[in-house]
Recover the amino acids of this structure.
């Protein structure tokens, strides 16, 4: 039987050749013997079978890709998308001058947080009607739809900036997050005697016409894990004070989007 004609993809060939070449030189440099090679393949197999491949890749590689893309260019620094984003979060609406309220359980534990943001373009104009997607973990440090008992879209939602590019969202303070330690990613951390912690963070994704989608995170500036985030996602311009207002916390940050 004749092989079906496939469309040659030059970019795939280029990248795949480099991938194989560099894995081979990694084996050379690490002087992997055959037994170690087999252990490596088995470990990679477990990484895939446990569903931890995105976790491992995001912890150890995603920041590297982001840094090489953006560090030199103006605009808010992106940070990790991470493995815990899911599509289909609820649209959150609010009366004028009222905060958006992120989806949460009626008895959601945690300190109430009002987070205020402004979104503008690198040219200085405020951006109205920007789609803001937000997700974060709960006080058990778990993400809905993954390691949590909460409903699928708990502490997830999207809303739009107002005519001045502003938004205010009411939620709870996120919690420092230990990446799972009982699988092949954690096993790796154990050998390296690395802790599994990420500082507390809000995940945000901004989509605006004519602009590059901005995927980033916001961190309380007093978190104990800021300086040694296991996934290296912290950037100085993503830190902000979570100010104690008695009944609640208040934090804010401005975001600047790059043009396409
Ligand atoms: C990773 C990113 C996160 O935001 C998180 O909460 C956990 C893990 C990661 O990069 O794998
Ligand atoms: Fe996260």
């Amino acid at each position: 039987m004749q092989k079906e004609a496939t469309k040659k993809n030059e970019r795939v060939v280029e990248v795949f050749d480099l991938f194989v070449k560099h894995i081979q030189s990694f084996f050379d440099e690490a002087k992997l013997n055959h037994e170690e090679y087999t252990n490596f393949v088995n470990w990679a197999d477990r990484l895939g079978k446990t569903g931890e491949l995105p976790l491992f890749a995001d912890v150890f590689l995603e920041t590297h890709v982001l840094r090489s893309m953006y560090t030199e260019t103006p605009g808010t620094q992106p940070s990790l998308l991470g493995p815990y984003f899911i599509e289909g979060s609820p649209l959150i609406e609010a009366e004028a001058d009222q905060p958006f309220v992120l989806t949460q359980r009626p008895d959601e534990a945690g300190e109430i947080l009002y987070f205020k943001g402004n979104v503008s373009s690198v040219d200085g104009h405020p951006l109205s009607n920007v789609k803001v997607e937000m997700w974060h973990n709960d006080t058990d440090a778990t993400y809905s739809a993954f390691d949590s008992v909460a409903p699928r879209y708990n502490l997830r939602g999207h809303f739009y900036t107002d005519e001045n590019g502003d938004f205010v969202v009411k939620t709870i303070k996120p919690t420092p997050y230990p990446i799972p330690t009982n699988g092949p990613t954690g096993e790796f951390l154990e050998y390296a005697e690395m802790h599994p912690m990420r500082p507390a963070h809000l995940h945000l994704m901004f989509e605006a016409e004519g602009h590059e989608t901005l995927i980033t995170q916001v961190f309380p500036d007093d978190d104990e894990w800021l300086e040694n985030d296991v996934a290296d996602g912290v950037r100085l311009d993503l830190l902000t004070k979570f100010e104690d207002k008695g009944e609640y916390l208040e934090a804010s940050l401005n975001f600047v989007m790059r043009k396409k």
User: Anything to note?
Assistant: Residues 10-30 form the longest helix (21 residues). The helical segments are 10-30, 34-49, 53-70, 184-191.
